[in-house]
Amino acid sequence: MLRDKHEPPPVEGDDATFVDLSAENPSSTLTRVVIAVWILSLLAVIGVGIGHVMLMRRELREHEIQRAVDDVSDRVDLVLEHSMPQALVDGEPAAIEAFDAIIREHIVRPTTAGLALWSPDGRIIYALDPAFTGTQHP
Q1: Neighbour count for residue 71 (Cβ, 10 Å)
Q2: How many angstroms separate the CA atoms of 53 and 65, rounded?
Q3: Residue 126 per-residue DSSP state
Q4: What's the Cα-to-Cα distance from 20 to each of 23, 29, 85, rounded to whole Å?
Q5: Are strands 116-118 and 124-127 parallel, antiparallel or unpaired?
Q6: Measured distance CA(59)–CA(65) in Å, rounded
Q7: 92-116 confidence digits (pLDDT tens)
């Protein structure tokens, strides 16, 4: 009996679950399963990586904000220890002007959004925006 050279060899027995893994059948079930698992694994790794990058960006942003607040707070404490005259608390214009010069020289940076100092009764003693100085807030 002559066989075509591209014809798979005969299989003996009644095994209906036989999978042909020969080169003539590259899209076998096993190959498809391996490729599917590989693709899903790759997608999972990419998804975890993207999630990690997003989380790290949020953490970095929160850290930078906290660092900026701490930095301004430290500078304000240092300046206020030596520069908080009663005349400023009383709202005298010359004291406010002198204090403003100190604040702008030692505290305000290009990234400073705003600054205000309140008295215990809720009156703004000083603000970077002069329109707020002297106003009352609860």
Answers
A1: 13
A2: 18
A3: E
A4: 9, 9, 92
A5: antiparallel
A6: 10
A7: 889 888 888 888 887 788 877 788 8
